[in-house]
TrEMBL record, chain A:
Residues 4-235 form the ABC transporter domain. PROSITE patterns: ABC_TRANSPORTER_1, ABC_TRANSPORTER_2. The keyword Nucleotide-binding applies. It comes from the Bacteria. It comes from Prauserella endophytica. CDD domains: ABC_MalK_N. This is Sn-glycerol-3-phosphate ABC transporter ATP-binding protein UgpC. SMART domains: AAA. Keywords: ATP-binding, Cell membrane, Membrane, Nucleotide-binding, Translocase, Transport. The gene is ugpC. GO terms for molecular function: ATP binding.
UniProtKB/TrEMBL annotation, chain B:
The keyword Amino-acid biosynthesis does not apply. The chain crosses the membrane at residues 16-38, 76-98, 107-128, 140-163, 184-207, 247-265. It is found in: Cell membrane. This is Carbohydrate ABC transporter permease. Pfam families: BPD_transp_1. It is a multi-pass membrane protein. Belongs to the binding-protein-dependent transport system permease family. Residues 72-265 form the ABC transmembrane type-1 domain. Keywords: Cell membrane, Membrane, Transmembrane, Transmembrane helix, Transport. It comes from Prauserella endophytica.
Amino acid sequence: MAEIVLDKVTKRYPDGALAVSEMDIEIADGEFVILVGPSGCGKSTALNMIAGLEDISSGELRIDGARANEKAPKDRDIAMVFQSYALYPHMSVRENMAFPLRLAKVDDATVRSKVEEAAAILDLTQHLDRKPSNLSGGQRQRVAMGRAIVRSPKAFLMDEPLSNLDAKLRGQMRTSVSKLQRQLGTTTVYVTHDQTEAMTLGDRVVVLRGGIVQQIGSPQFLYDHPANLFVAGFIGSPSMNFVPATLEDGSLKTPLGTITLTDRVRRLAEAADAPREVVAGIRPEHFEDAALMEESHRQGGSTFTATVDVLESMGAEKYAYFTVEEELATTAELEELAADAGATDVPGTGSAIVTRLSASSEAREGQPLDVWFDPDRIQLFDPANGTNLTYSG
Amino acid sequence: MAIGGAVTTGRKARWALVDVIVVVYALFPVLWIVSLSFKSKETLSDGNFIPREWTFQNYADIFATNEFIRPLINSLGISIIATLIAVILGMMAAYAIARLDFPGKKLLVGISLLIAMFPQISLVTPLFNIERELGLFDTWPGLILPYITFALPLAIYTLSAFFREIPWELEKAAKMDGATPGQAFRRVIAPLAAPGVFTTAILVFIFCWNDFLFAISLTSTEASRTVPAALSFFTGTSQFEDPTGTISAAAVVITIPIILFVLFFQRRIVAGLTSGAVKG
């Protein structure tokens, strides 16, 4: 168990490409930290630098207060779970899990008991003598976890460990990873591109973009108070809707109509010296079918009417998609997010407003619908640099 | 159903025919030599494929003198030592080529390719002179060294292809598990490359075992003469006697180690040894 500190850690490749730029993260002992971001944001590079599989160009990595930049991976006492599991195919499950202990020259009796203990935790006891090729994806994943936990390292590093599993199994494994980490209390750094994993697993989430840390905070904090457009768009599923808007005398002109800002939002925007042209963001779950709202409650919010393009019923809730007349807000950040989500490959998906309605909503495709939303939930962003103008962290 | 069955039968018959043609084409000369080796001196040139009277006299003859047994020992020793060294050196070189980025990598690959393409006959005279000067002529090292030289490119090429197939993450995993680079290579990479190593060993062994050019040029006595060279020195009991029968018997005998070698290692060359390492 250890604390891990990244102090202005930078990775620059020989060809000049900057993979990670001055990353500052302090990971407390026993903490579960998620590095999240779209592909190519430098999260895996950061993890490999902590592991010692890649050199640190500048800055300092401290494990338990001691500089670890020059330490070989084997001397850092850190275990890693790889996306591909990287099990040794010529060894049985038992031998795979015993491998780190054998290298550490642990005596046979201890190896045996530790492997069996880990196997019991991971429910692998009956598979100990099988080869990895005879295991299912989930079992292989657990063997990879077992190999990591068996020698009680100072920290776990996990590089998208669940991304090769199918959706249902991923959900189950997510819960068991979380439980396991809490049970062992080992410092864990977990890399993922899946914002759901980031939200559900971590004590703290580090959002990365282009090798630069965008924001660090608890999942709920990032959701409620995104520091910028990128974090706002990345955290939350379906993602936040962004529309271009104009600030005029305390009201906001948007494609969803002119909205009177609440005092709280107006004060924050004034304090941040907001420009006239802004990007307004509102999450799908902050919309509701106006017909379901009580009249008194309805007064507190704004309502707009639009035709439902597509209605997806999820059982517990309904997603209604609307097209707005004007172009949706586009900035470099949003384009990058859209590209990462593959939206640019599917024409027409980029320009819709997504709303999450109660299952009891009677919205129908092709029919107009009154949609209510709470203007206090609106967040305003500077289109020039993406900063959250209503940030109140 | 009937039509499908007919198509399958027709296709099977065609494949069987092609197979038989290929096998007969490849094996006929071998079978002819086997047949000759079992013929007596009188019936040797009677033109019958199946000997009219079977005899083991030719086999008895070759094992009766040192003329064959000593070269057989030379052949085995020289080929096995050369194969071992070439495969071990080749493994290291191939691993470096497949995994590491070092200056001059392309040059190394280029030079090894060049050696493989070099006409060996043009090197026979210089090698002959060098080896005489160095006292290597007509010794085991005198053959082992050139064999290693010419087997290495083959070994490096075959092995680097196999090393490239091994997921790099396994090595990273080994490092994270606390292995030194040496331990990672010995305990993870080398066992996984085993099929490639055996394949290479077979190819290199056959190359050394069958070589005639160097064997005839760089040896002069039974101290180091290998079987292919020794065969050309076979004589009958008198100089008027044709040694065809004994040569055939010797040829059959020296084919056996190769067949054994391949059969023994073939079981090791199991496809998909790396399956289960990574996803899929």
